[in-house]
Amino acid sequence: MKVLRRLALQHVVGAKKSSWRSRVVPIFCTDAAINPKRGSETEESEKVPFFLVKRIREAILNEVFQPGDRLLEVDLAEKFEVSRQPVREALLALEKEGTVIMSPYKGAIVKPLSVAEVTDIAELRLELISLALKPAHRHLTPAEFDHAYDLAKRIRRTKIGREAFECNRRFWDIILKKAERPILRETFWNLDDRMIRYYPPLLELYSTPESRPRQPEALIENYRKGKIAEAFQVFKKIYLKMVDQLIDHLDNDEGTEPAR
Fold first, then answer.
1. What secondary structure letter does DSSP report for 100?
2. Is 182 helix (H, G, I), strand (E, B) or coil?
3. Is 18 helix (H, G, I), strand (E, B) or coil?
4. Distances from the Cα of 180 to the Cαs of 141, 170, 184, 212, 224, in angstroms?
5. pLDDT tens-digit profile of 75-106?
6. In the predicted structure, residue 246 carries a pLDDT above the cut 90
7. Domain spans of the chain, in order of start
8. H or E segment to which residue 101 belongs
């Protein structure tokens, strides 16, 4: 908390002479401050919105904030002990990634769950995975296959949304890094960020490790043997079944937006 307060203070001081949308200018009149293209602004002040985005995501994963909940700037500033300006920047970043909705005079709300969104994300994720598997395979080491398989088992065992999200992210990062396709990887993470709101209902749907789909484990079991096409098809079959079950679960929730 002390670090966040110190960072927030620097952020406010550096931003007094500019609007909240402008880049932060450091207090000291250095060459980097005069010509930002030749240097960088105060790195610590830029970290404040980043930390807030992370904390708000964690709160959503832990169901402190749920779909449809209002996120008032003043409340968030008090909760995280920062000024309102970095809170506003964090909310705008979360709006851009599709986690919150910003409305004039109403503020932000956690974006409601949507069957249409789940369907779109599932289809796009599958396409990106299919494009990454073949180029990544030849660069993966036995140790990396082992690590990925261990993460897959942890995803299935955990009862905590944050842990499931983090393990899933690390699992796919092992593969996506080795694919050496940075735009594909960036697009995948953008979709992954939009999925944060769906982790709590997924854990509710599959309340025990035994009931959970094991598509990441099935993928690695075949993938490490060089059976790339077979690995993807096995993964796809289990994954789409899980998506269908999630959609049925969401259809029974009155707070879920219907499919288009």
1. E
2. helix
3. coil
4. 15, 16, 9, 31, 18
5. 999 999 999 999 999 999 999 999 999 988 78
6. yes
7. 2-110, 115-251
8. strand 100-103
For tokens 């920062």, name the residue. 82
User: CA separation (Å) from 38 to 2, 28, 76?
Assistant: 31, 15, 34
115-251: CATH topology is Four Helix Bundle (Hemerythrin (Met), subunit A) (1.20.120)
In order of 38, 73, 103, 229, the CA distances from 46 in angstroms are 17, 18, 24, 43
- Res 157 pLDDT > 90: yes
Helix (H) and strand (E) counts in the chain: 12, 3
pTM value? 0.77
Q: In what order do the strands lie in the sheet with 100-103?
A: 70-71, 107-110, 100-103
102 forms beta bridges with 108
Give the three-state DSSP class for 71: strand
